[in-house]
Amino acid sequence: MKQKQIEEEKRMHKAVGILLLAFTSAIAGIVSIFVPGTAGKLAKWTFFGVFAVCIIYLVAKRKVRLKRKENERIGKNVTELFFDWIRSEVSLDIEIEPPESGKSNEKMALDTPPKTTPDDRIKPPKKPQNILPPLLKKEINILLGQDKNQENIYWIPENERNWNFVIVGTAGIGKTQTVKAILSEFKKSKIPYIIFDFRKDFILLNGAQKSDFGRILDLNNISINPLDLDVISPKDQKYQISDIINLVYNLGDLQLGIIRKAIKASYEQKGISEEDNKTWKIEPPTFTDLQINLEKLAEKADSRTKTSIEGIFARLDPIFDYKIFSAKTNLPFKEILEENIVIDLGILPIENLKAIVCEFFLRKLRYYLNSLPESIYPKFYIIIDEAHRLKYEKNSSIGQFFKEARKYGVGILLSTQDPVDFTELVYNNLGGLMSLQLNEPKYAKKISEHLGGDIKWKEIKNDLSSKFSAIVKFTSAPNAIKLKILPYFKRE
């Protein structure tokens, strides 16, 4: 009703305007005839002016009417094309009809019910094809505990500058329970993760190959070939692999050079040349080939070089004996990125062997992620308990992850009792830092620097002696927060 009233008022205003123009024109015409002099000329020009305005108005109105009809015709064609596109893109058990000419979409929706058959009332309609991309974003709200006012404290990775989180604290103060609590929240949010368990802390068996925290990936059934040419040249691979070995085993310069020479010989024996990229598709050597070439170099070496090679074998023998790196890579990365996985490093007897397995596993995972589309949301987490057992230099696998993980949609959670081992690369790429009690003054001082604000190192050393007492700092908040962690064993 209101719309009709407005239209009636518009028509009335137009009519009044036209009458006024006609009246003005008539008066001006009469005056121009009977009144001589300047006044008569002025009236004559007024008459012609008003007459011209009327003519222009009528012409313009006609053009607008024609344009409106053309737009209505085009609008009808566009509508028909739109419904044709819908029919071609979406497979439904109903027929979509374009609106009839002069009939609004709203009226069509009310007047024309979808055509159905008896079967359609029983069977659900077919799902439309993927016109829009699936929703990738997952809400991650990790309940950590409560502050002194009994307010819940959450870690929300998406709110932070980075998605990485570090937990530090003296042994026995509650770090592992805190990590377990966070993993339980990940599971509630359906966020897949992989945890590298150095001490079997997460192997609480409920079945043959499953713990409370995910499926156990049996190291006896997997193999990793570090010498795969992962979109890089044999020369690059030679230097990167030898650097990782050196990072874990702290080799001397002569030993490092010998390993590089043995890696190059291993590629060449397979017919792979550093200079000819056409050969890079040939199946690469494994660490078994590396072992054989080290032995060959020892046979021909002088006494000094032979002693160095013997030192290499003294360190690398566990690698060769366990043969994890002596076959083609068979890691099921697609499944890993969709599940909760526990890597049981506790079955390996030597700490350096655990570390090198972790290094090469993460390296292969990084190359696999690099082949996938980038993500603006966190969709997968890497968790490393006892994180001080790894190195965090820029050339380490975990160091590379800290620089690049965000673009892969990957976050990192580290837990350690030795925060001094972390480089600034780690601290500069955190979204959250949580400290439980640290008895060592040098550790407490290190963490107080990164918590910032009014947090003094003595507070970390003395005021957090109660189990599960902690301080957390987020990049999204100006100040650190003191809280009581809700441990895993108290959660539902």
3D architecture notes:
With 492 residues, the chain is of the alpha/beta class. The chain has 3 domains: 2-89; 142-222 and 332-490, Rossmann fold (3-Layer(aba) Sandwich), CATH 3.40.50; 234-314, no CATH class. Helix content is 47%, strand content 12%. Strands 2-1-13-12-11-3-10-9-4-8-7-6-5 form a 13-stranded mixed sheet. The protein is elongated and about 135 Å long. Mean pLDDT is 81; it is low at 72-79 and 81-136. Pfam families: DUF87. This is Helicase HerA central domain-containing protein.
Q: Which CATH class of the largest domain applies here? A: Alpha Beta
Strand order of the largest sheet: 2-1-13-12-11-3-10-9-4-8-7-6-5
Sheet having the most strands: 13 strands, mixed
Structural class by helix and strand composition: alpha/beta
CATH architecture annotation of the largest domain = 3-Layer(aba) Sandwich
CATH superfamily of the largest domain: P-loop containing nucleotide triphosphate hydrolases
CATH topological fold name of the largest domain? Rossmann fold
Shape: elongated
> With helices defined by DSSP (H or I, 4 residues minimum), what is the helix count?
14
- Give the averaged pLDDT, no decimals: 81
**Distance between the terminal alpha carbons, to the nearest Å?**
59 Å
Alpha-carbon Rg, integer: 38 Å
Quaternary assembly: single chain
Low-confidence stretches: 72-79, 81-136
**What number of domains?**
3
**Strand content of the residues, in percent?**
5-15%
